Amino acid sequence: MADEKENIGEKKYKYSIIIPTYNERLNIAIIVYLIFNHLRDVDFEIIVVDDGSPDGTQDIVKQLQQLYGEDRILLRARAKKLGLGTAYIHGLKYATGDFVVIMDADLSHHPKYLPSFIKKQLETDASIVTGTRYVKDGGVHGWNLMRKLTSRGANVLAQTLLWPGVSDLTGSFRLYKKLVLEDVISSCVSKGYVFQMEMIVRASRKGYQIEEVPITFVDRVFGTSKLGGSEIVEYLKGLVYLLLTT
Amino acid sequence: MKHIVKILSLLVAISAFWIGLLQAAIVPRSHTWLLPIYFVVSLGCYGLLMVGVGLMQFPTCPQEAVLLQMDITEAKEFFRHKGVDVGSD
């Protein structure tokens, strides 16, 4: 297989897909199925970082390992909910790919965009390819007017203050060169979605080449809205922090 | 250079220009005194405009929800055949 690739002058890269999970018993199986469907000719591994889900997520992952192979699906669990940033760091330790993809487990990020991330990176040799929901071929489903307004207002504020060079700052569907992710993540201290902003802003400040691909985002329509007053305050605090320290 | 330094330099440059205008009195001083207010208000209006335009042009994708449901059904079928118990949502 390696010989075939060398003949057409193409290096075969490996992609590590890190998916932090908490209570995603059904969704993780669907995500794995979709990833295998959409990345048929790609060398990849899926690293599931589960934070001790009580709903049996790890059992499902073990069954998936039986089905797809333990070399394709790695379960690297932790004892309890420890946060997103540390989940990535934890997953990174076991990643053997040249590139690392981070994505959410709740099906808001669809694996069908993975080929476009990979293609964009190969075309541009970018250090980071980030998915953006806010361009023409992208989009969001499941947000009401208020949510869209908040998102748009937050984005304009962030663009004005930070000049980040990307259109979607809080997105968490991204492909990194492994070394770049290691470098950027070591200097980030924020939590939650401010962490995602910090990652991309720090990467931008460090001069890493960042490209964007359009993605669609289907929000979990059921359940409570995740955007209360405290979230807005956290966001503003995060903006000021990034303004002053990056 | 840190980003905040860039922004502060920009503000300093604008302030220097403003003070220069005040001293040179090319434009009547009464107007010049109001320039910072005009600037801030313009910035605010521009921001609101950007929010409004962005809101109007906000890309949506209702068909994606349908496609996703189809994918979920397909995946559940697949796992049912393979004997993996994914349970119900």
From TrEMBL, chain A:
Q: Where is this gene product found?
A: Endoplasmic reticulum
Which pathway does this polypeptide act in? Protein modification; protein glycosylation
- Which Pfam family, just one, is annotated for this protein? Glycos_transf_2
Q: Which reaction does it catalyse?
A: a di-trans,poly-cis-dolichyl phosphate + GDP-alpha-D-mannose = a di-trans,poly-cis-dolichyl beta-D-mannosyl phosphate + GDP
**Do you know which CDD domains this protein is assigned to?**
DPM1_like
One MF term in GO for this entry? glycosyltransferase activity
Q: Does the keyword Aminoacyl-tRNA synthetase apply?
A: no
Q: What is its main location?
A: endoplasmic reticulum
Keyword annotations for this protein?
A: Endoplasmic reticulum, Glycosyltransferase, Transferase
Task: Please report the stretch or stretches of sequence annotated as the Glycosyltransferase 2-like domain.
Answer: 16-184
Q: What's its EC?
A: 2.4.1.83
PANTHER family for this protein? DOLICHOL-PHOSPHATE MANNOSYLTRANSFERASE SUBUNIT 1
The family assignment reads: Belongs to the glycosyltransferase 2 family.
The record's note on quaternary structure and interaction partners says: Component of the dolichol-phosphate mannose (DPM) synthase complex.
Task of the protein: Transfers mannose from GDP-mannose to dolichol monophosphate to form dolichol phosphate mannose (Dol-P-Man) which is the mannosyl donor in pathways leading to N-glycosylation, glycosyl phosphatidylinositol membrane anchoring, and O-mannosylation of proteins.
Q: This chain belongs to which protein, by name?
A: Dolichol-phosphate mannosyltransferase subunit 1
Organism of derivation = Camelina sativa
Gene name, per UniProt, is: LOC104776177
Automatic annotation (TrEMBL), chain B:
So which residues are the signal peptide here? none
A molecular function (GO) term? glycosyltransferase activity
Q: Which InterPro entries match?
A: DPM3
The entry's keywords: Endoplasmic reticulum, Glycosyltransferase, Membrane, Transferase, Transmembrane, Transmembrane helix
Localisation: Endoplasmic reticulum membrane
How this chain sits in the membrane, per its record, is: Multi-pass membrane protein
**Pathway as given in its UniProt record:** Protein modification; protein glycosylation
Transmembrane segment boundaries: 34-55
Pfam families in UniProt = DPM3
What does the record give as the function of this protein? Stabilizer subunit of the dolichol-phosphate mannose (DPM) synthase complex; tethers catalytic subunit to the ER.
For this entry, the protein name equals Dolichol-phosphate mannosyltransferase subunit 3
The gene coding this protein = LOC104777725
